TrEMBL record:
<keyword id="KW-0813">Transport</keyword>
<dbReference type="InterPro" id="IPR011055">
    <property type="entry name" value="Dup_hybrid_motif"/>
</dbReference>
<dbReference type="InterPro" id="IPR001127">
    <property type="entry name" value="PTS_EIIA_1_perm"/>
</dbReference>
<keyword id="KW-0598">Phosphotransferase system</keyword>
<dbReference type="InterPro" id="IPR050890">
    <property type="entry name" value="PTS_EIIA_component"/>
</dbReference>
<dbReference type="GO" id="GO:0016301">
    <property type="term" value="F:kinase activity"/>
</dbReference>
<dbReference type="Pfam" id="PF00358">
    <property type="entry name" value="PTS_EIIA_1"/>
</dbReference>
<feature type="domain" description="PTS EIIA type-1">
    <location>
        <begin position="20"/>
        <end position="124"/>
    </location>
</feature>
<dbReference type="GO" id="GO:0005737">
    <property type="term" value="C:cytoplasm"/>
</dbReference>
<keyword id="KW-0762">Sugar transport</keyword>
<dbReference type="GO" id="GO:0009401">
    <property type="term" value="P:phosphoenolpyruvate-dependent sugar phosphotransferase system"/>
</dbReference>
<keyword id="KW-0418">Kinase</keyword>
<protein>
    <submittedName>
        <fullName>PTS system, glucose-specific IIABC component</fullName>
    </submittedName>
</protein>
<keyword id="KW-0808">Transferase</keyword>
């Protein structure tokens, strides 16, 4: 079983509250979402593993069980072309839960008219493979968001 923890501080809101039909409809996969604190912060690894995809606005870490966890920093933030983001590691790096991956300022996204909501998605998973999914309450980096079997 994989425990997926929050990469950010904020409030858990669940995927259905994400203002993007691809995420809210769980088309990418099941999971939850974080409404982040609107201050500069660092998004950290939600699991131990290898960074297999890395962009300023999003990253995927795959754990030893082959579970890929997507952290997407804001909605439509790819359109910011990296503004407000600083990548701190390299694709292919091995990370431990809590390791810094991307420094970002959600306020830059908001100022550009983008949502700061951050989906945390279990890629290629089924909804019934997740348990104890956090969909409300304040979270800080390292707090459990869901378990994946």
């Amino acid at each position: 079983m994989t425990t997926v923890t929050s990469p950010l501080a904020g409030r858990a809101i669940g995927l259905t509250a994400v203002p993007d039909p691809v995420f809210s409809g769980a088309m990418v996969g099941p999971g939850t979402a974080i409404d982040p604190v609107l201050e500069p912060s660092v998004a950290v690894a939600p699991v131990d593993g290898i960074v297999v995809s890395l962009h300023p606005h999003a990253f995927v870490v795959v754990d030893e069980e082959g579970h890929g966890v997507l952290t997407h920093l804001g909605i439509d933030t790819v359109q910011l072309n990296g503004d407000g983001f600083e990548v701190l590691i390299n694709k292919g790096d091995t990370v431990k839960r809590g390791d810094a991956i991307v420094r970002w300022d959600p306020a830059v996204a908001v100022a550009a008219g983008k949502s700061p909501i951050c989906p945390i998605v279990a890629l290629e998973a089924t909804a019934d493979s997740l348990s104890a999914v956090r969909e409300d309450g304040d979270v800080k980096p390292g707090d459990t968001l869901f378990s994946w079997t």
